[in-house]
Automatic annotation (TrEMBL), chain A:
Gene expressing this chain: Gnpda1
Functional description taken from the UniProt entry: Catalyzes the reversible conversion of alpha-D-glucosamine 6-phosphate (GlcN-6P) into beta-D-fructose 6-phosphate (Fru-6P) and ammonium ion, a regulatory reaction step in de novo uridine diphosphate-N-acetyl-alpha-D-glucosamine (UDP-GlcNAc) biosynthesis via hexosamine pathway. Deamination is coupled to aldo-keto isomerization mediating the metabolic flux from UDP-GlcNAc toward Fru-6P. At high ammonium level can drive amination and isomerization of Fru-6P toward hexosamines and UDP-GlcNAc synthesis.
MF term (GO), any: glucosamine-6-phosphate deaminase activity
Protein name: Glucosamine-6-phosphate isomerase
InterPro entries given in the database record: Glc/Gal-6P_isomerase, Glucosamine6P_isomerase, Glucosamine6P_isomerase_CS, NagB/RpiA_transferase-like
GO CC aspect terms: cytoplasm
Source organism of the structure: Leucopsar rothschildi (Bali myna)
UniProtKB/TrEMBL annotation, chain B:
The EC number(s) this enzyme carries: 3.5.1.25
Protein known as: N-acetylglucosamine-6-phosphate deacetylase
Enzyme class: hydrolase
Residue numbers binding substrate: 154, 235-236, 243, 272, 328-330
GO biological process terms on file: N-acetylglucosamine catabolic process; N-acetylneuraminate catabolic process; negative regulation of UDP-N-acetylglucosamine biosynthetic process
Domain Amidohydrolase-related: 62-401
Keyword Hydrolase assigned: yes
Pathway, per record: Amino-sugar metabolism; N-acetylneuraminate degradation
Active site residues according to the UniProt entry: 294 (proton donor/acceptor)
UniProtKB keywords: Carbohydrate metabolism, Hydrolase, Metal-binding
Gene it is expressed from: Amdhd2
The record's free-text note on cofactor binding: Binds 1 divalent metal cation per subunit.
Gene3D superfamilies documented for this protein: Metal-dependent hydrolases, Urease, subunit C, domain 1
Cofactor: a divalent metal cation
């Protein structure tokens, strides 16, 4: 694991964005060669604050992605399990997830894989924990009866299949979850801990999120920032990377 | 990338690098257009899996809904109150020329005229969509002849009339045909005006109060019967008095029926209204302000003598008077000049200035679901302006119908 500790939310976001940018450029996507970016799924379609609106306003409308290359789990599908299975197939067809970017819940969950979720689970229908329902109430005018109690989600196993995983954790309320995720053992009550067994994980956090970690851990990884920052240095354009890759340089790995 | 053919074959245009006026704010968003309407890009993306066929870089322009002029008597030598042989080509000429002022829809206005003029002219005005040929015609605005003698302004006295005898039937007989009439200005203190106002409102015609010596109660009664507009506020009405504000008092009246709003036209050319008075009106009732030009035949032409219906008027710079007098008669202002002057004089936001010429007139005429905004599914009539609110390009139904000459002035 690489643990990247930045001062605050904005710096953490910027570091993560630059890292993703560099990874895409390094990968050199093209027709038929997809850089598959995985993201955790969210609320059902109908609501104005829906995940679709969120993704459109915050991501898709700013880039030139083709709509055919966007796959979002459809919570209104007639057969939910079939929808989930089809989603897994689509991931395989695109060549597998290259980079999965997600956050962590205060209860240590990744995507909607709440405590107790199997660490080898796949995309499925998942009941939501009360904490999550309460947290989502803000999208439904605080009316708990309107908040969905189930969601479609990628499984822990699905994310483990990604070639690289990046988890963003900011804020003091996530500190305990981060501690459980990286300093304690692998445990299905804190599903993010599963990534201790993933060969390629990056945790990006701010100071506040490290509040429950051992001072030793924080010092160790802060000391590595000089090296880690090389990962976000501006890279060449994708065209120039074509020629770079023929003189293959080994990317940094731990 | 091609759009999803099963929904529509029409090309999709995406205007990028611009700030659009939406939800009363200038937002950095792209404007998407298909088949002459504003398109919702999110629905296009997720439901149709479509994307733009053409992308146009707007070079950081402001994109605003096209201006709507509800009071314009003519221009460029054309007088809508004169029943000439080539009346139709006259209206076409004005409609085409005002595109460069940012006007995409207008109401050709007729001043007080003999009944014969109405019978000859009105059948030649038809409601029609705009396009490369010119701005769209929303319907005629009939200013008079049922107005007050004391406040006739530049209207000819011998043509003034009342509807005491037959109320609405008198009005119908005078005008002949009401099919494409959108607004009627009358003086509410005239006897039987309530019946007339009710009848006009029932037919979907907007009733405006103007050229009148009505006091506030008479004006409020007219509003209760259905009047919704005030013709060029301050001009041709009793001045504001603190014990009887007259028609001007409608701006802050508490006897307006719930859910209704009174709109008022302002000619903000710096001449018809002192900027201080403009500010008072704007601050009292900002949401009701509708910018109008009240332009007459001399607009766009050199100074000198021109006609306004039955009268002869003289242009001297920005002033237009009845020849030989100091009575104001129409203006030579253009809509974009009015917008700029309004913004400067009141210090209001750019958004408010643009809305006074687009959203508010659309709301007045009850057409804001398709004109006056850049909301999804409304008509793609819009303008590209620079930061100083000079029109750079005019679009109707998504097609460019006028562009500022880069080399020209």
């Amino acid at each position: 694991m690489k643990l990247i500790i930045l001062d605050n939310y904005s710096q953490a976001s910027e570091w993560a964005a630059k890292y993703i940018r560099n990874r895409i450029v390094q990968f050199g996507p093209g027709p038929g060669r997809f850089f598959t970016l995985g993201l955790p799924t969210g609320l059902p379609r109908d609501h104005p604050e829906s995940y679709h609106s969120f993704m459109w306003n915050n991501f898709f409308k700013h880039i030139d992605i083709s709509p055919e290359n966007v796959h979002i789990l459809d919570g209104n599908a007639p057969d939910l399990q079939a929808e989930c299975d089809a989603f897994e197939e689509k991931i395989k067809a695109a060549g597998g997830i290259e980079l999965f970017v997600g956050g962590i819940g205060p209860d240590g969950h990744i995507a909607f894989n709440e405590p107790g979720s199997s660490l080898v689970s796949r995309t499925r229908v998942k009941t939501l924990a009360m904490d999550t329902i309460l947290a989502n109430a803000r999208f439904f005018d605080g009316d708990l009866s309107k908040v969905p109690t189930m969601a479609l989600t990628v499984g822990v196993g699905t994310v483990m299949d990604a070639r690289e995983v990046m988890i963003l954790i900011t804020g003091a309320h996530k500190a305990f979850a981060l501690y459980k995720a990286i300093e304690d053992g692998v445990n299905h009550m804190w599903t993010v801990s599963a990534f201790q067994q993933h060969p390629n994980t990056v945790f990006v956090c701010d100071e506040d999120a490290t509040l429950e970690l051992k001072v030793k851990t924080v010092k160790y990884f802060k000391g590595l920032m000089l090296v880690h920052n090389k990962l976000v240095e501006p890279l060449y354009s994708m065209k120039e990377m074509e020629t770079e890759r023929s003189q293959s340089k080994k990317p940094y790995s731990d | 990338m091609p759009s999803n053919k099963s929904v529509s074959d029409a090309p999709i245009v995406q205007f990028t690098n611009c700030r659009i006026l939406r939800d009363h704010q200038l937002q950095r968003e792209d404007l998407w257009v298909r088949e002459g309407k504003i398109l919702n890009p999110e629905k296009l993306f997720f439901d149709e899996k479509g994307s733009a066929d053409v992308q146009l870089d707007c070079k950081d322009s402001i994109i605003a809904p096209g201006f709507i002029d509800v009071q314009i008597n003519g221009g460029f030598g054309v007088d809508f109150s004169l029943a000439t042989d080539d009346f139709k080509s006259g209206i076409d000429l004005v409609g085409q020329k005002i595109l460069s002022h940012g006007v995409t829809s207008f109401c050709p206005t007729l001043v007080t005229s003999p009944s014969s003029v109405y019978h000859q002219v009105l059948p030649q005005i038809s409601v029609r969509n705009g396009g490369a040929h010119g701005a769209g015609i929303l319907g005629a605005h009939l200013e008079g002849p049922f107005i007050s003698k004391e406040k006739k302004g530049a209207h000819p006295e011998h043509c003034l009339r009342t509807f005491e005898a037959g109320a609405f039937q008198d009005l119908l007989a005078t005008y002949g045909c009401l099919d494409c009439v959108q607004i009627v200005t009358l003086a509410p203190e005239m006897r039987r005006s309530s019946e007339v106002i009710r009848e006009l409102t029932k037919r979907g015609i907007c009733v405006s109060l103007g050229h009148s010596v009505a006091n506030l109660s008479q004006a409020e009664e007219a509003v209760q019967h259905g009047a919704t507009f005030i013709t060029h506020l301050f001009n041709a009405m009793l001045p504001f008095h603190h014990r009887d504000p007259g028609i001007v008092g409608l701006l802050t009246s508490d006897r307006i029926p719930a859910g209704r709003r009174v709109f008022y036209g302002m000619i903000s050319d710096g001449i018809h209204t002192n900027p201080a008075a403009l500010r008072i009106a704007h601050r009292a009732h900002p949401k009701g302000l509708v910018l109008v030009t009240d332009a007459m035949a001399g607009m766009g032409l050199a100074p000198g003598r021109h006609t306004l219906g039955q009268q002869v008027v003289e242009i001297d710079g920005l002033n237009t008077y009845i020849a030989g007098t100091k009575t104001l008669s129409g203006s030579v202002a253009t809509m974009d000049t009015c917008v700029r002057h309004f913004q400067e004089a009141t210090g209001c936001s750019v958004e408010a200035a643009l809305e006074a010429a687009s959203l508010h007139p659309a709301q007045l005429l009850g057409i804001e679901h398709k004109k006056g905004t850049l909301n999804y599914d409304s008509d793609a009539d819009f303008l590209m302006l620079n930061d100083s609110l000079y029109v750079q390009a005019t679009y109707i139904a998504g097609k460019e119908v006028w562009r500022q000459d880069v080399s020209g002035m």
